[in-house]
Amino acid sequence: MALSRVYWRCVSLGGAAAPPGPLFSLRLQPGRRSPAWGPPRYLYPRQLLIQHFWTSKQQLEFLDIYHSQRKKSHPEILNCLEKAIPSISNTALQRHFTQLCAKVQNGTHPGINDLLLLKSCFSVYPLDIAHLSIAHVKALSRAMLLTPHLPSVLLRYRLNKHTTVLHQLDKALKRLGTGQLTAQEVKSACYLRGLNSTHLTEDWCRIWLEEWLQFSCSLKNAEMSLLLHATVLLSTNHAGTRH
After folding, report:
1. Is 35 domain-assigned?
2. By C-alpha distance, which of 199, 181, 203, 212 is closest to 242?
3. DSSP 36
4. Which of 45, 52, 55, 219 is the most exposed, having the fewest neighbouring CB atoms within 10 Å of its CB?
5. Domain Letm1 RBD, which positions (predicted)?
6. Does residue 47 fall inside a structural domain?
7. Does the residue 242 lie in any domain?
8. If you average pLDDT over residues 196-211, what whole number do you get?
């Protein structure tokens, strides 16, 4: 499948195949002689495992419930972002950040350029992953459907690992091209990145995924905190997700 090629390219971005490491797991596909490399199991939404046992209607209902749990943390994350704004030294960025938060809270979907203007804020105190408040880290963990009931050092490690792997997948998928993905793979890719794609058309999902990849691949490793927050900021008010 196309996603298998994406995972393989994640370990060969340098031009040569790399050996399996802690960020990747080996899985064999039926009917294939060669192994396919996949990301850690925790990157797969657990609810997708029921697709062979539940009807399509049951799956959609469960996905909606699952995503509603994810959205409960969004207001808390926006509140944490607003609290961090006074600590940003650049007054112009402060003003833009305030406008961005207000836009999201008022139901407007921000553009990727709105976020890219702020990327320098997410690579230093107080918004890089290493300096986020404990409340902020816990809220982000809940948004990623990861348990927040762990020491903060472990929560930061898991969030950093999650975004690092996701960034690698994004770069590989950008090289492969979303046109190689099936409709279900596109929907799954969107869901993994924070968008509730269960009720969106394939075309909407492809447009959103292309914008996400454009955004993600423009970020540097030091700006992974912005990628993490984008799973909330770029999905909360997307057309078709408010129902």
Report:
1. yes
2. 199
3. E
4. 52
5. 69-243
6. no
7. no
8. 91
CB burial of residue 15 (10 Å; 0-12, 13-18, 19+): exposed
Using a cut of 0.85, tell me whether the model's pTM lies above it.
no
Tokens representing residue 200 in the block: 């969106």
Q: Could you tell me which of 103, 105, 82, 106 has the C-alpha nearest to residue 94?
A: 82
Asked if residue 78 and residue 2 are part of one domain, the reply reads: no
CA distance readout (Å), 18 to 23, 24, 100, 110: 12, 10, 40, 37
Q: Is residue 13 part of a domain?
A: yes
Q: Looking at the 3D structure of the chain, how many domains does it have? A: 2
Q: 92 and 6 in one domain?
A: no
Q: Is residue 101 pLDDT above 50, yes or no?
A: yes
Q: What is the DSSP letter of 122?
A: G
Q: What is the largest CA-CA distance in the chain?
A: 58
Question: Cα(22)–Cα(35) distance, rounded to whole angstroms?
Answer: 17
DSSP state of 237: T
End-to-end CA distance of the chain: 32
How do residues 116-136 score in pLDDT, each as one tens digit? 999 999 999 999 999 999 999
